[in-house]
Amino acid sequence: MPDVPGVRKAPTMRERRERSLGTLRTLGTLGTLGTLGTLVLFAAPPLFQTTFHLPRPGEAVATIVARCAPCSWDTPGREAASVKLLVNGKYSQHLLLFRGQQSADYRVGLGRLEAGDHQLTIALDDEWTPQGVAATIDAVRVEVPESPVDQLALAHAPVLHARPDTIRRFTDVPVLSWYEADTLRTPTRLRYGVVFSNED
Question: Can you tell me the distance from the alpha carbon of 123 to that of 7, in angstroms, rounded to the nearest whole number?
Answer without folding.
Answer: 37
